[in-house]
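EI: anyone free to look at a 225-residue chain?
SC: sure, send it
EI:
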Amino acid sequence: MPIATKKIESIADGFSEPKKRLLYYLKVMQEAGLQELAKTMKMSRMGVHKHLALLQKRGLVEAIEIREHVGRPRMIYKLTSQGKTIFPKSYGAIATHALDFIERNMGKEGVEKVLRERQRNLFDLYNNRLKELDFDRRVKELARIRDEEGYMAESKKVSRGSGHHVILEYNCPIIHIAEKHWEACSTESELFEKLLDAKIETTHRAAKGDLICKFQIKESKEGYL
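SC: here you go
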């Protein structure tokens, strides 16, 4: 499974680089066997197993035995609930309490007003890095910005010359907000449309139980997806 190189310095400070990479890959891949991890890490199976064993002792990784009809059972590794907490959450609990307070006192309109104000601020911030780029590079740069903000994002071009791209986000720092206030997701999609001058179809959402957030992107001049 090819995975783009990411910035992982902020993940689990104090861990060795191989352990940080393992945690990152398990976050993206959700679960993987020893052979798959060794191939992805470009390490020996024994080396990967040693790092996994230490992460298991720390309670960050768990191993599940998979029994198939033929042959020996194999082990699948995945992050524990504790392991998932090391990835950025963007002060989700505090922000959710604040939005709950606004909703109680000002209704849904108040929540949407706050989120749209955030959208305007993010537009100015993001657009400073995107405005001089062509469409393809704007998509790549947007994914890079989101990755820097803890979304573990990457972009892919679906087919050459078609204007179709996909942005995948493997982590949602605002998931606690989005689960209670869907407006956080809708304003986010609108932000992408304005920044890219594109049609955005959000096919997967972590806040709805999907493993990732997935945005299908097409230039506006080519119409809707």
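EI: The first helix runs from residue 17 to 29.
SC: 👍
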